[in-house]
Amino acid sequence: MSANLDQLRAFIAVAEAGHFTRAAERLNIAQSSLSATVQRLESELGVRLFERHTRGCRLSEAGAVLLDSARRMTQEWSRMEAGASDFRRTGRGRLSIAAPSIQCALLLPGLLRTFSQAFPGVRVEIHDVAEQEVHELVRTGVADLGIATQIDGRTDLAATPFYTDDYVLALAPGHPLARRKAVEWAALKDQLVIGPLAGNPVRRRLDDVLITKGLALNYAHEVSLPWTMVGMVREGFGVAVLTMAVRPLIDWYGLQIRPLIRPTISRTLVLLKAPGRALDSPASGFRAQLLGLRYPTAPSGEPRQPLV
What we know:
The strands form 2 sheets. Strands 3, 4, 5, 6, 7, 8, 9, 10, 11 and 12 form a 10-stranded mixed beta sheet that branches. Strands 1-2 form a two-stranded antiparallel ribbon. β8 (193-196), α8 (201-212) and β9 (219-223) form a beta-alpha-beta unit. It is built from 11 helices and 12 strands. The protein is of the alpha/beta class. It has 3 domains: 5-76, Arc Repressor Mutant, subunit A; 82-161 and 269-291, D-Maltodextrin-Binding Protein, domain 2, CATH 3.40.190; 165-267, D-Maltodextrin-Binding Protein, domain 2.
């Protein structure tokens, strides 16, 4: 007999609670029933999932290894249940997209307006998360598609490039560097730079290229969101290195934007999907729409073109 969904959910609940009683309360079932369910799962898998002790329990070595798989399986089932519910209700299904918050705010709304005209009745679910979380949401099946910065390292996801934009400098109108038409990276040596957190793919891409040129930025402030970065620029905390995708936000805050040159450095956005997972009609339609976008103007005045 194979493990069933109730057993997997029981396993996950105990692992997260670290205690059978608290997990049973969360699931609204008797502790004895929960314990029996977990024991049946252990018997069917042939491994011990928890090390029990008087104050609770902790994952065994096997349990720690199997927990991620259990989560993926239950998430995929929940996704299938939601999709079936949408088909029963509307006959058109659903679409789930994961993207960094700035893309969710500036890129997706216009796309989804057009998408909703082509696919009326499809329920769209948007996960506006930190960029480093996008890959995991696509990998586990929580999201059908993801939008993220292309990274040099290998990924187990299928990544299709669709847009390239340059890194630019956002600065207050009265800043001395605002008198220049373009700013060399070397000119930032003595500037207080506001940038993304160290684990952010946008920053990682930038730092990797700069180090090959013998350059490095003096990050005086590290923050998660572009909104915070431009707000700090406006209040005089320093200058911010962003990408052209953020230009509407920079303009809205009344800041200046200057190309960063010598070298000109760009990043590429990719559309992510899990390999081997077939896209249904709504997801395929959104993918085609995204890859056919017309793109905003680069600092040089020349329109950006899609890579695909």
